[in-house]
Q: What sequence folds into this?
């Protein structure tokens, strides 16, 4: 064993000892401080990243939760086209019949028990725009009359096909019905705005430049105003009829005032005092 | 005055601790790093001892603990992928004589020993410590040291003769 000791001591004794100094040993502290700070920095960075990730995740989750809470997607509301794209607009605006029935009952205060009314509140007849919750679309006046909580005085023209009849409960005192149709035999386009409890002057003013405006009073004492509104190169004619509580405004395109008078005669507003 | 005294001590003990750590870690860079740490602790704590033997034992104990920390570190276990018997010591220069080959075999046999035997062999043969001193440094029982020393010798003899 002495041989081991001798040889080992001789071999290990030849190990080259690296240069060292007191400064290098003391600098070790700075090195350690640097490593400690680096570790601390990495730890803080990780914590900050975790916090940011948590905030983003919770924000996203909250947003998703709020969206799910306020949007009800039903089978009738979601549509997927042939390309497999989900039509979100329809999802946003179309609700199922049960929620419509609730609205219907609220405003009309009529329970939907009969089968015809159940059919009436399906999306075939009624669609509610996203912003205007108290609004409905109809395809004929009779259906509109079922829902609108006041009497509608409307032009009795069997030749007019109304594409849409829109009713909106604007606020507690004002209602609006807007109907768009076309008399194909005469190439007349109608746009009828029917306001309840409306300020006449206000509605006259809102159409911009007004020309050829004449005031009429019919035999029943109702006033109406016939005027042309010029917009760029096209001529449009608006007829506003003031009834005791309502304003009916009609829009004709491509007709002179005299031709419109003829139409008004047919609309049973024919007996006027100029 | 105290600083000069400490500096002299570091000058005296630095090669001793460096050799010990190098034999344990088998890597010069890591051995230098750990040795610096040993003497940094020595400077910070400024321990007082009754004898030089006690002082040496304290230094060896600190060095061995730091080596153990190093072996346990994630860096050593996961980053340094190397064979257990790989020796990365280029600073051992053996003299050119008829015993050079024999010396090389012996050093390599000792360096290939398991960690628990390697520190005992070094302290026993190079530092000429007694069993009780090694027991204090390694915090192991004397009987354990005796057994491990005997087994280490057998391994060395076997490898050396081969």
A:
């Amino acid at each position: 064993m002495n041989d081991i000791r001798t040889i080992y001591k001789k071999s290990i004794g030849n190990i080259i000892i690296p240069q060292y100094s007191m400064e290098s040993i003391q600098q070790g502290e700075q090195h350690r401080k640097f490593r400690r700070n680096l570790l601390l920095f990495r730890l803080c960075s990780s914590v900050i990243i975790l916090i940011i990730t948590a905030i983003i995740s919770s924000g996203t989750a909250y947003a998703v939760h709020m969206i799910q809470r306020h949007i009800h997607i039903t089978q009738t509301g979601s549509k997927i086209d042939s390309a497999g794209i989900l039509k979100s607009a329809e999802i946003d605006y179309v609700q199922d019949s049960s929620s419509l029935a609730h609205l219907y009952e609220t405003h009309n205060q009529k329970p939907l028990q009969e089968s015809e009314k159940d059919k009436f509140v399906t999306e075939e007849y009624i669609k509610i725009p996203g912003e205007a919750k108290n609004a409905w679309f109809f395809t004929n006046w009779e259906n509109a009359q079922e829902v609108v909580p006041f009497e509608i005085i409307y032009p009795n023209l069997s030749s007019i096909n109304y594409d849409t009849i829109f009713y909106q409960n604007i606020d507690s005192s004002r209602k609006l019905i807007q109907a768009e149709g076309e008399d194909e035999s005469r190439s007349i386009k109608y746009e009828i705005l029917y306001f309840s409890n409306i300020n006449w002057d206000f509605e006259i003013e809102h159409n911009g430049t007004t020309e050829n405006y004449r005031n009429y009073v019919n035999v029943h004492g109702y006033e109406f105003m016939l005027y042309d509104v010029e917009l760029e190169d096209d001529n449009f004619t608006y007829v506003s009829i003031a009834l005791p509580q309502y304003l009916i405004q009609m829009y004709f395109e491509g007709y002179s005032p005299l031709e419109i008078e003829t139409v008004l005669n047919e609309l049973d507003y024919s007996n006027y005092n100029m | 005055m105290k600083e000069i005294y400490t500096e002299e001590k570091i000058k005296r003990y630095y090669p001793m601790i460096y050799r010990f750590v190098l034999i344990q870690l088998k890597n010069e860079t890591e051995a230098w790093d750990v040795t610096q740490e040993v003497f940094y602790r020595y400077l910070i704590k400024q321990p007082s001892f009754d004898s030089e033997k006690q002082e040496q034992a304290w230094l060896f104990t600190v060095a061995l603990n730091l080596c153990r920390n190093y072996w346990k570190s994630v860096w050593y276990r996961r980053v340094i992928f190397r064979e257990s018997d790989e020796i990365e010591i280029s600073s051992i220069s053996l003299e050119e004589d008829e015993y050079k080959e024999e010396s090389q075999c012996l050093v390599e046999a000792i360096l290939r020993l398991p960690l628990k035997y390697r520190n005992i062999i070094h302290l026993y043969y190079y530092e000429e410590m007694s069993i009780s001193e090694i027991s204090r440094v390694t915090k192991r029982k004397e009987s354990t040291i005796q057994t491990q020393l005997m087994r280490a010798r057998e391994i060395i003899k076997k490898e050396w003769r081969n």
Summary: Chain B is about 75% helix and 0% strand.
